[in-house]
């Protein structure tokens, strides 16, 4: 108890020397993960001045958990109920209702490192409009560990000059949000990437804060993982993102299938196998860097990498044309 009080007092002392920040986010049926998120928020070395949450119509105890936490917290908490609002609509509404012009953005399914907001604010200078935080995996099951380990980038893979931040770890000015015309409310997935690209096109200046870490869990089932990446790719198709990247994926798998059906399999298939291993190299590297203790567990993780990659690719190849067709109809 005394440690928590000390953290709060430290945050209050430092707050007077920093700009005021509104933390904005959306929620929908987050009863399970919300307590851990709120605990990590309470433990911040720098507390936000306010928390503005838009609930999209939760049917569980999400709103009551937020109300109870807000009543006992030093952070002013506002919960806005907007049944049916998607993520973009909820974030835009939260920004509109926020009192301050410096806006931190995250998701309720995360756990924030204690210095998360502190690191974001420290990177905000007069010549910076957007601060990109980072994210790391956390897990409670083997599947969560497998998917997160293989798919989430390592910090040394990030090029700060081209990195497009996730809105689970982000700091923006209100002017930057306006310049991008807010989050795209017509889009259900990949909305944060479209928002990032709009800010890039507006000429806004980005900074990277690698120590502003928000931790989150991957899906717990293969079905859930495939559905998630199907939706990501459908969002790419709807927004017209990465057409060349998706075309290359279709081409690579077409070449692979053609190679498997080739009349000289003894020659072609080893080359295909080597090519596929090269394609998976960065995923093997992530698995090795995040390997679990023990030889058997490490081997199990490494051997599962190709299945994770292929499942995700097939899900993307199914989702992208659905989104592209939607985009053509919408035009």
TrEMBL record:
Q: Which residues cross the membrane?
A: 270-288
Q: Which GO terms describe its molecular function?
A: glycosyltransferase activity
InterPro entries according to UniProt: Glyco_trans_2-like, Nucleotide-diphossugar_trans
Gene3D superfamilies cross-referenced by the UniProt entry: Spore Coat Polysaccharide Biosynthesis Protein SpsA, Chain A
Source organism, top-level taxon: Bacteria
Name the chain's protein: Cellulose synthase/poly-beta-1,6-N-acetylglucosamine synthase-like glycosyltransferase
**UniProt domain Glycosyltransferase 2-like: residue ranges:** 22-135
């Amino acid at each position: 108890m005394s440690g928590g009080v000390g953290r709060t007092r430290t945050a209050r002392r430092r707050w007077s020397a920093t700009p005021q920040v509104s933390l904005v986010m959306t929620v929908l049926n987050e009863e399970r993960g919300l307590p851990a998120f709120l605990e990590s928020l309470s433990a911040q070395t720098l507390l936000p001045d306010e928390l503005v949450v838009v609930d999209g119509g939760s049917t569980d105890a999400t709103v009551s958990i937020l109300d109870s936490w807000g009543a006992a917290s030093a952070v002013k908490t506002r919960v806005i109920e907007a049944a049916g609002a998607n993520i973009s609509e909820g974030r835009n509404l939260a920004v509109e209702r926020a009192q301050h012009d410096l806006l931190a953005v995250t998701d309720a399914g995360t756990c924030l490192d204690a210095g998360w907001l502190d690191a974001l604010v420290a990177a905000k200078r007069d010549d910076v409009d957007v601060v990109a935080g980072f994210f790391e995996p956390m897990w409670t099951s083997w599947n969560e560990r497998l998917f997160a380990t293989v798919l989430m980038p390592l910090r040394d893979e990030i090029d700060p000059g081209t990195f497009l931040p996730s809105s689970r770890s982000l700091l923006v000015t209100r002017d930057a949000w306006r310049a991008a015309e807010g989050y795209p409310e017509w889009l259900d997935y990949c909305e944060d990437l479209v928002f990032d690209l709009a800010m890039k096109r507006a000429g806004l200046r980005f900074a990277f804060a690698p120590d502003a870490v928000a931790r989150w869990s991957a899906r717990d089932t293969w079905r859930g993982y495939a559905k998630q990446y199907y939706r990501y790719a459908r969002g790419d198709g709807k927004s017209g993102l990465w057409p060349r990247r998706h075309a290359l994926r279709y081409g690579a798998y077409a070449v692979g299938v053609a190679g498997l059906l080739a009349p000289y399999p003894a020659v072609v298939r080893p080359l295909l196998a080597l090519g596929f291993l090269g394609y998976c190299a960065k995923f093997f590297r992530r698995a090795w860097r995040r390997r679990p203790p023990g030889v058997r567990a490490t081997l199990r993780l490494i051997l599962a990498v190709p299945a994770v990659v292929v499942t995700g690719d097939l899900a993307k190849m199914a989702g992208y044309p659905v989104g592209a067709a939607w985009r053509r109809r919408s035009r």
